[in-house]
Amino acid sequence: MSVLVNKDSKIIVQGFTGSEGTFHATQMIEYGTNVVGGVTPGKGGQLHLDKPVFNTVQDAVDKVDADTSIIFVPPAFAADAIMEAAAAGIKVIICITEGIPVADMVKVKAYIDTKDCRLVGPNCPGVITPEEAKVGIMPGFIFRKGNVGIVSKSGTLTYEAADQVVKKGYGITTAIGIGGDPIIGTTTKDAVELLMNDDDTECIVMIGEIGGQLEAEAAQWVKATGNKKPVIGFIAGQTAPKGRTMGHAGAIVGGKDDTAQAKMEILRANGIHVVESPAKIGDKVAEILG
């Protein structure tokens, strides 16, 4: 099993004919992902990468039965692209775009909460179910199918964790990069819950960072539901100065519970297996799964 995306997902690329959309769509197709077309307003009716181009997401839904979208649209237009996908009935919307104004995302979040869909991102690396579907910008070659789920705010640490897990002889069910912006569609707790309910996922790696309460909420949920599966936690930003944005727009220590040390203590208190260094993730997975 898997969560969010699999070999049967019918995926379209919004911003299909642009440079980023073209590059990453090519990689996705080469990986074996079921890309059924793309959307670029004004270029409908053309072929790009041997796939049909549509003027609107609704056209893509009507003509190729698309159910999943990945968005490579510039920040000024990305909020509209997300809402267009939601309005057209797309079930899984993955937004890679970085730098979307927070005010735009406030409107997006309010809108998608009224729709039957799930947004992953923005400012995320996407979602991958190894050997089935790569819907994002992650290096697919390091992933192997297995029984470890990954949830991460960080793109590079998603790949690092996956690489370590694979080198220890295990593999990944689905890796979800949730993104590091202040307002995102799928929270750490949402993603952990998806993997907790996946029969094939036996262990979850949860990678967080300074700023916000997402990791604490996820850890408290894990404990409240009985710690059904082992969760390994790492928090990035242990040396970050207070009050300064670090890397991601959401990575800023606003209060005493936002620091890496405070988050690690909260995770430990809720039964999460905390590692002090990202270099220890693979070792901890091997220790737990034996």
UniProtKB/TrEMBL annotation:
Gene3D superfamilies according to UniProt: NAD(P)-binding Rossmann-like Domain (3.40.50.720), Succinyl-CoA synthetase domains (3.40.50.261)
Pathway: Carbohydrate metabolism; tricarboxylic acid cycle; succinate from succinyl-CoA (ligase route): step 1/1
Any one annotated GO CC term: succinate-CoA ligase complex (ADP-forming)
UniProt keyword terms in alphabetical order: Ligase, Nucleotide-binding, Tricarboxylic acid cycle
GO process terms (BP): tricarboxylic acid cycle
Active-site residue list: 248
Residues the entry annotates as binding CoA: 17-20, 43, 96-98
EC code: 6.2.1.5
Stored SMART domains: CoA_binding
Coiled-coil regions, chain positions: none
GO molecular function: nucleotide binding; succinate-CoA ligase (ADP-forming) activity; succinate-CoA ligase (GDP-forming) activity
Pfam families in alphabetical order: CoA_binding, Ligase_CoA
Residues annotated to bind substrate: 159
CoA-binding domain boundaries: 4-100
Catalytic activity: succinate + ATP + CoA = succinyl-CoA + ADP + phosphate; GTP + succinate + CoA = succinyl-CoA + GDP + phosphate
Task of the protein: Succinyl-CoA synthetase functions in the citric acid cycle (TCA), coupling the hydrolysis of succinyl-CoA to the synthesis of either ATP or GTP and thus represents the only step of substrate-level phosphorylation in the TCA. The alpha subunit of the enzyme binds the substrates coenzyme A and phosphate, while succinate binding and nucleotide specificity is provided by the beta subunit.
Complex formation: Heterotetramer of two alpha and two beta subunits.
Family per similarity comment: Belongs to the succinate/malate CoA ligase alpha subunit family.
Record PANTHER family: SUCCINATE--COA LIGASE [ADP_GDP-FORMING] SUBUNIT ALPHA, MITOCHONDRIAL, SUCCINYL-COA LIGASE SUBUNIT ALPHA
This protein's name: Succinate--CoA ligase [ADP-forming] subunit alpha
Encoding gene per record: sucD
